[in-house]
Structures are given as structure tokens and as C-alpha cells.
Amino acid sequence: MTPANPEGDGLLRYLDVLRERVWLIVGCTVLVLAVAVAYVEVASKTYTATAQLGVQAISGSDTVLAGIPGVLHQSGDPTQDVLSGAQFVTTPDVAAQVVKTLHLNVSPTTALGWVSASPIGQSDFVAVQAQTGSASLSERVANAFVAQTIAVTTAQMHQAILAQLPSMQAQLQGTPLADRYGSGAIGTSVQELEQYQHKNNPSLFAGATATLPTGPSSPNKKLTVIAGLIAGLVLGIGIAFAAHAFDPRLRRAEQLRDLLGVPVLARILQERRRRPQPLLPSEISITSQEGYRTLRTMLSVRRGNDSPVYLVTGSGPGEGKSTTAISLAWSLTHTGASVILIEADVRRPTFASIFDLQYLFGIDEVLKGEVPLASALAPVLLDDSGIRVLAARHSGFELSDKLSHGVAVKLLEDAKALADYVVIDSPPLTVVSDALPFAKLADEVIVVVRRGVTRLKALVELDDLLRQNGVRPSGIVVVGDSDSPGAGYYPGYANGKPAEAPARVPSKPRSGWPVREP
Ligand SMILES: Nc1ncnc2c1ncn2[C@@H]1O[C@H](COP(=O)(O)OP(=O)(O)OP(=O)(O)O)[C@@H](O)[C@H]1O
Ligand SMILES: [Mg+2]
Predict the structure, then answer these.
(1) Residues whose beta carbon lies within 6 Å of some atom of ligand 1
(2) With bands split at pLDDT 50, 70 and 90, how would you rate the model's confidence at 501?
(3) Ligand showing the shortest atom-to-Cα distance for residue 496
């Protein structure tokens, strides 16, 4: 049998995958968020301070300062002028002056590495940005770079004027008095240059000063936390889908419809009670008990013959096979029938312990032919219902060595002669196939699946194995349903749990019915 699509179709399927693994996603998100917050706390912090340098290039018609280094002349493109102004900031000379004036214990190259200068939009200003590990240092460095850019270029201008003046003054001496002054005349130029010797660079000026940064610019707390949140969510969702792809487990009973093509006979609630062993009928909710009654009804509707043999199996460990076998046997007794419960799962036998059996013989002695079945059956009283139990005495006992077809036929014939119903608790046949002879002889084979536990692949394997051996499963019992159709049937019972104690079976089974007291 090849299932069309065991996962179901549509977008809803993806939503279901997310819903089923919501805690994984939440866990991932919280984890990554915690890492992001921890990073923000421990990562070294950077503080950014920005000062402004104004650029006012000298008009091209003003020839007095032509060729004077450090002075910017209009290029015709204001953007280019501001860009040229920015280039005056990040020079080794300016950095050396900053180190000197701020008495920094670093090299000019290091100080230069802290600073960047770039035009602010279409304005006449250059943003001088300093990034250091200290808020006050960043503030002082940004302001110092602006001040020292003006100072250094002013010094360059003064030096150039000083070098130029003697020759111009000599030229002035040789010029007739009447021609010395006026627009563009040598005397006027000399006067202007002498004045510039006492002024700052006219093409640069200080803009807004840097203020003390109130917090670190990096790492950015808000951004990092948002990034952590998004990354955690994405990671969680990715892992959820990966987990789903690599380990597809049964999540919804509907998946079974396409997968096995056999009916769901009963749905059993996910019980809150926790114990490592199978749950007794007294330990499950009224709704689950009702689920097992439904199973009984479904099976008896399907078969009307006398002493049918029901075999309960599954595709993996811990799915609720033994719990189902016990509760099915228990519910069968309510019809007034006699029931024999056989423990054919000898890997991890549990019946002796949960039924508190003190007995001499078990299934191994019966299969070896050492004792008749009747002598090995232990009577157990669950409430007022008696069942007879053939338990496995030793774990690890090799059932396959003893259980030939003939032996199985004999055991079941004997059992049918002694009871109205025979219920067999079988191991998962894909894992331990030694109970297969029982499966071939059983009238009904019930497959127990458990939401979140049963692997779909294992289920397909079990189905293949059964069909290869000519066994068609009768149906499925879904254990671990969060919402059973029976829930709420009884007024006053929330989620299948009784509001007040109803008539229930005692919590401990009484073995010794009718005679076998320990
Ligand atoms: N309806 C249920 N809700 C919650 N837990 C359950 C339910 N049924 C069984 N369990 C628990 O699941 C575990 C396995 O149950 P059980 O022993 O019946 O399964 P199993 O398939 O027989 O296991 P194994 O493969 O070991 O024989 C036990 O701890 C049991 O208490
Ligand atoms: Mg079991």
C-alpha cells in the first residue's frame, strides 16, 4: 500500500506543523532573544559624537587669496566645494594637532581612525563624526577635529601669505603712488593680505558643536533585540519544519485515513496522570473509559462470533498498547463475559507488577508445555470485574523460540475454551515480530497509535508487515487525543475528568479473584 499523502493537504497543514511545535518555536525565540540581550550587555560599546564644519568657498573673482593653500575657492559646483572642505578634516596634520591639544595618549593615525567627515546632504556643512569607546572622548575628538581643521588650514594660509608678502611689498615700492591703490591694485592686495594674517581661514567656519552622546551607538539595543526576536522566530519555524520533515510523527487522527485506510475505532484522551507503567481503567478519565467501551462496541458490531481473539499492537514503544489491552478486557467484562488477557509483550512485561501478581507460572511455561493454560491464569479483580491474566514472568524470554504456529493455535484454542473473549497485548510487531503468529490467528487486530509519539513511517511499515502476512488491521485506537468526541458527553465532567468522584474502580486491582490471594 502506498499512501497518497500521509500528511494531508493545503496551507492548513503548515499551520498545523507550527501549532504542534509552538513550544519549540517559543523556546527558540526566547533563546535567541536571550543571546541578543546578553550580546548587548557584554559587547564593547561605541559612542558617536558629531560636530559640524561650515564651508564657504571664496568667490572666484577674489584674486587676493588665489593660490593660497588651505583656502577653498568656488569651483562652480557647491557640492564639490563641501566635499573638498571635508577632505581638509581627515589629514595627518589635523590629527596630530588634535592629539596634541587634547593630550591624547594615542598616535595621530589612531585618532584619524576614529573620525570620518562627509557632506550633510545639499548643505554647506560637513559632518565630522567621532566614534570611540567613551562618550566624552567622542565629543571632545569631534569638536577638536573641527577646530583643528580651521586652525591647521589657517596656519597654512598665514604661512603662504608670509612667504608671498615681501615680494609684493617690493613690487609696491616700485609702483607709482597714484597706481598703488584701487580695485585690484598692488597696494590694496598687500593691505588685504596683511589683514588676512590676523584672521582665520575665511572659507571654513565652525558649525554646531558635538554634544555628549546619551547612549552607545553600537550595539544598538532596540535593533539588536528586534533582530534577535525575528531571528529566533525564523530559526524556530525553520527547526519546526525540519523536525517535521525528518521526524514526521502522527499529529492528527485524520492523517490515518489516507495512511492506512482503516477506520478509527476509538479516541482516547491524553490523560494527565503520569506513571511509567500502563494506566489501569481506574486511572483514566470517564471519557477515556467511554472510549474503550466504544472500542468494545465497534469490535462486537464487527464480529458476532463466540470467543473472538483481539490482538492489540502498535508500531512503536510507549503508545498505550498495554493500557488499551487492559481497558478493552475490562470493558468486555461489563457485558457479563469472561475475559482472558494475555501478555505477549515479553520485552518489558508489566502485568505482574501492575496487577500485583504472585503466581507460579506464566506464558513461558505454557508455551513450553510445562503447565496447562488454566493453571497459569491469574485471576485479577478490577472493581467488581474479574479477568484472568496470563502474564509474562521474565523479561527477555525469547517468545519467538517457543511460539510456532501450532503452539499459538493450541494456546488460543485453550483460551477460547476457557473464556468468552481473549485479548492479547502484543509488542510493536515491526520492532519485535515474535508475536506475529498470534496476529495471524487473531480475529481482530487493533493498532494503537499515539499523537506526537507514533512515527508515520513506522506505521506504514507495520501496515505493510501485517498485509504481507495476510493480516488486515481492523482499525485504530488513537491515544492522546486532546479533544475526544466523547468529551463533554457527561454533564459536569470537564475535559473528561469527573467533577466529583463517580462510581469508579478502585485504584489498585485486587488479584486473587476468585482464589489466588498472594
Ligand atoms: N491515554 C493516555 N494518556 C496519557 N498517558 C497514557 C495514556 N495511555 C497510556 N499512557 C502512558 O503511556 C505510557 C505507555 O503506556 P503503555 O505501557 O500502555 O504503552 P505500550 O505501548 O504498551 O508501551 P510498551 O511499548 O513499552 O509496551 C505509560 O507511561 C502510560 O502511563
Ligand atoms: Mg506494553
Answers:
(1) 268-271, 275-276, 278-279, 288, 314, 317-323, 345, 348, 479-480
(2) very low
(3) 1
Give the lowest-confidence range in 90-104, 185-199, 360-374.
360-374
The closest ligand to the CA of 477 turns out to be 1
Residue nearest to atom 19 of ligand 1 (CA): 320
Give the single-character DSSP code of 324: H
Look at residue 81 and give its three-state secondary structure. Answer: helix
Ligand 2 mean position to 37 CA, how many Å?
47
Average pLDDT over residues 486-502: 38
Only one residue has cell 458490531, namely: 301
Measured by CA distance, the residue closest to atom 4 of ligand 1 is 271
Residue bearing the CA closest to ligand 1, atom 15: 320
Ligand 1 centre from 412 Cα, in Å?
A: 25
Domain-embedded: residue 4? no
Supply the range of the domain harboring residue 469: 263-497
Atom in ligand 1 nearest the alpha carbon of residue 347: 27
Helix (H, G, I), strand (E, B) or coil at 132: strand
Q: Answer for the pair 64, 192: CB distance below 8 angstroms, yes or no.
A: yes
Is residue 202 assigned to a domain?
A: yes
128 and 83 within one domain: yes
Q: How far is the CA of 479 from the centre of ligand 1 (A)?
A: 9
Q: What is the pLDDT of residues 18-37, one digit of tens each?
A: 887 899 999 999 999 999 99
**188, 277: one domain:** no
* pLDDT band, residue 87 (cuts 50/70/90): very high
Residue closest by Cα to atom 17 of ligand 1: 278
Give 226-253 pLDDT, tens digit per residue: 999 999 999 999 999 888 777 667 766 6
CATH code, domain carrying 345: 3.40.50.300
Burial profile 269-304: b = 16 or more Cβ within 10 angstroms, e = fewer = bbbeeeeeebbbbebbbbbbbbbbbbbbebbbeeee
